[in-house]
Amino acid sequence: MEDHVYKKIEITGTSTESSDQAIRNAIAKVAKTVREIRWFEVAELRGDVDGGNVAHWQATVRIGFRLED
Protein backbone atom coordinates (compact mmCIF):
# COMPACT_ATOMS: atom_id res chain seq x y z
CA MET A 1 0.00 0.00 0.00
CA GLU A 2 1.32 3.43 -0.93
CA ASP A 3 1.48 6.30 1.49
CA HIS A 4 -0.60 9.33 0.53
CA VAL A 5 -0.96 12.92 1.67
CA TYR A 6 -4.39 14.51 2.01
CA LYS A 7 -5.69 18.06 2.27
CA LYS A 8 -8.98 19.39 3.65
CA ILE A 9 -10.88 22.45 2.52
CA GLU A 10 -13.99 23.96 4.09
CA ILE A 11 -16.87 25.34 2.06
CA THR A 12 -20.55 26.15 2.55
CA GLY A 13 -23.26 24.84 0.23
CA THR A 14 -26.83 26.13 0.21
CA SER A 15 -30.26 24.87 -0.79
CA THR A 16 -33.91 25.82 -0.44
CA GLU A 17 -34.84 22.10 -0.54
CA SER A 18 -32.96 20.35 2.29
CA SER A 19 -29.77 20.08 4.31
CA ASP A 20 -28.87 16.99 2.28
CA GLN A 21 -29.16 18.97 -0.94
CA ALA A 22 -27.00 21.77 0.49
CA ILE A 23 -24.27 19.19 1.17
CA ARG A 24 -24.64 17.71 -2.31
CA ASN A 25 -24.49 21.16 -3.91
CA ALA A 26 -21.24 21.93 -2.07
CA ILE A 27 -19.61 18.66 -3.11
CA ALA A 28 -20.78 18.95 -6.73
CA LYS A 29 -19.32 22.45 -7.01
CA VAL A 30 -15.94 21.42 -5.58
CA ALA A 31 -15.82 18.31 -7.77
CA LYS A 32 -15.71 20.56 -10.85
CA THR A 33 -12.21 21.79 -9.93
CA VAL A 34 -10.76 19.38 -7.34
CA ARG A 35 -9.65 15.85 -8.20
CA GLU A 36 -9.24 12.85 -5.90
CA ILE A 37 -12.02 13.80 -3.44
CA ARG A 38 -12.17 11.07 -0.80
CA TRP A 39 -14.48 12.17 2.03
CA PHE A 40 -16.55 14.92 3.57
CA GLU A 41 -17.61 15.81 7.10
CA VAL A 42 -20.35 18.22 8.12
CA ALA A 43 -18.82 20.96 10.23
CA GLU A 44 -21.89 23.15 10.68
CA LEU A 45 -25.54 23.13 9.70
CA ARG A 46 -27.75 26.21 9.84
CA GLY A 47 -30.55 27.88 7.97
CA ASP A 48 -32.81 30.87 7.54
CA VAL A 49 -36.30 30.93 9.01
CA ASP A 50 -39.11 32.84 7.32
CA GLY A 51 -42.63 32.88 8.74
CA GLY A 52 -41.88 30.01 11.11
CA ASN A 53 -40.61 27.75 8.32
CA VAL A 54 -37.14 26.81 7.13
CA ALA A 55 -36.54 28.94 4.05
CA HIS A 56 -32.92 28.14 3.25
CA TRP A 57 -30.37 25.53 4.40
CA GLN A 58 -26.63 26.19 4.75
CA ALA A 59 -24.21 23.29 5.26
CA THR A 60 -20.54 23.91 5.93
CA VAL A 61 -18.55 20.84 4.97
CA ARG A 62 -14.91 19.86 5.13
CA ILE A 63 -13.89 18.03 2.01
CA GLY A 64 -10.81 15.82 1.98
CA PHE A 65 -8.86 15.00 -1.13
CA ARG A 66 -5.62 13.20 -1.95
CA LEU A 67 -2.73 15.29 -3.22
CA GLU A 68 -1.30 14.06 -6.49
CA ASP A 69 2.32 12.96 -6.74
Describe the structure.
Helix content is 19%, strand content 55%. It starts with 5 loop residues before the first strand and ends with a strand. The chain is an alpha+beta fold. The chain has 1 helix and 3 strands; from the N terminus they run βαββ. The protein has a 3-stranded antiparallel sheet.
Topology (elements, then pairings):
Elements: E1 6-15, H1 19-31, E2 37-50, E3 53-66
Antiparallel strand pairs: 1-3, 2-3
Keywords:
single chain; 69 residues; alpha+beta; Dodecin subunit-like; 3-stranded antiparallel sheet; Dodecin
**CATH H-tier superfamily:** Flavin-binding protein dodecin
Query: How confident overall, as mean pLDDT?
Result: 96
What's the order of the H and E elements? EHEE
Share of residues in strands: over 45%
**End-to-end gap:** 15 Å
- DSSP summary: helix tally: 1
Structural class: alpha+beta
> In order across it, which strands form the biggest sheet?
1-3-2
Report the strand count: 3
Q: What is the CATH class name?
A: Alpha Beta
Round the Cα radius of gyration to an integer and report it: 14 Å
CATH topology group: Dodecin subunit-like
- How many structural domains can be distinguished in the coordinates? 1
In the predicted model, the low-confidence regions spanning at least 5 consecutive residues are: none
Sum up the overall morphology in one term.
elongated
- Biggest pleated sheet: 3 strands, antiparallel
- The level of helicity is 10-25%
What is the CATH architecture term? 2-Layer Sandwich
